[in-house]
Automatic annotation (TrEMBL):
Classification of source organism: unclassified sequences, metagenomes, ecological metagenomes
Protein name: Unannotated protein
Family that this chain belongs to: Belongs to the enoyl-CoA hydratase/isomerase family.
Natural source organism: freshwater metagenome
InterPro entries reported for this sequence: ClpP/crotonase-like_dom_sf (IPR029045), ECH/Chromodomain_protein (IPR051053), Enoyl-CoA_hydra/iso (IPR001753)
Gene3D superfamilies according to UniProt: 2-enoyl-CoA Hydratase, Chain A, domain 1
Signal peptide: none
């Protein structure tokens, strides 16, 4: 696929981190279905590449993503023209067949490096990710209510899981913009750094995940997804035991044990050369 609204690069000491950058800086990286297709393609390509261990997503220029492109999405739909590949038949305004939440939860680890304004889908596209790192200059808003809309991409569940029901209600019912410091204080973002440190911090975080084996990383993500709201602790343990049994027989576990006994670092992935 030729990318027109994102760029893709390799970072990290061993080039084990893929950097996906939303690249419409003149529009503060306003979201379109085309951008979503390109993001999904880049993430799936990274997932299929054994030399990649993790993914970082950020924005070019002053903004991360200032919400959906008004002309290209909402105005288009009001004019009777679907803005993408059958978004009316998709999930959360995404093109048909693209389940963004499932993609991110089933993916290799994903870190969002939020460099500026993140509004509407600029927030909800990040909520299924594994870590949200924000610049002190970033700001956040769940602006759906201001547009006569409701939130999407499972954000009514995922935001509440991060910040609690009361704070999620406040952010969604008011649509107000909050500065990065407040977003960090309430748990919307996991880490807060100065602007010139943002990308290095996000890449370092992603690289710390990439040092671990893909199979077990994705198993752990699956368990977190399945068990986050599970009240049956017996079922939680059953799921864990099923995966643990698979791990015991895995080459990754054998390599970790062998490396420990030999007092050497384990090798879990080929280098990108």
């Amino acid at each position: 696929m030729e990318y027109t609204q994102i760029t893709v690069d390799r970072r990290g000491a061993d080039h084990e981190v893929v950097l996906v950058t939303l690249n419409r800086p003149e529009k503060l990286n306003a979201w379109t279905p085309t951008m979503a297709d390109e993001q999904a393609h880049a993430i799936e390509a990274a997932n299929d590449d054994p030399t990649v261990g993790a993914i970082v997503m950020t924005g070019a220029g002053r903004g991360f993503c200032a919400g959906a492109d008004m002309e290209a999405t909402f105005k288009s739909r009001l004019d009777g023209v679907d803005p993408g590949r059958d978004t009316a038949g998709g999930t959360g305004g995404m093109p048909r067949g693209l389940d963004w939440v499932a993609l991110l939860r089933e993916s290799k680890p994903i870190v969002c490096a939020i460099n500026g304004a993140a509004v509407g889908i600029g927030v909800t596209m990040c909520l299924p990710a594994d870590q949200l790192v924000a610049s002190t200059g970033a700001k956040f808003g769940m602006g759906f209510i201001k547009m006569g809309l409701v939130p999407e991409l499972a954000s009514t569940r995922l935001l509440a899981a991060r910040v609690g029901l009361g704070r999620a209600s406040d952010l969604m019912l008011s649509g107000r913009i909050v500065p990065a410091a407040d977003a960090h204080r309430i748990g919307l973002v996991d880490d807060l750094v100065e602007p010139d440190e943002l990308l290095d911090r996000a890449i370092a975080t992603a690289a710390s995940y990439a040092a671990n084996p893909d199979l077990q990383l994705r198993m752990t993500k699956q368990l977190l997804t399945l068990n986050a709201a599970e009240t049956d602790l017996a079922l939680v343990q059953q799921r864990e035991m099923e995966m643990l049994t698979r791990c015991w027989a895995s080459p990754e576990h054998a390599e970790a044990v062998s490396a420990f006994l030999a007092k050497r670092p384990p090798v879990f992935r080929p280098t990108s050369g």
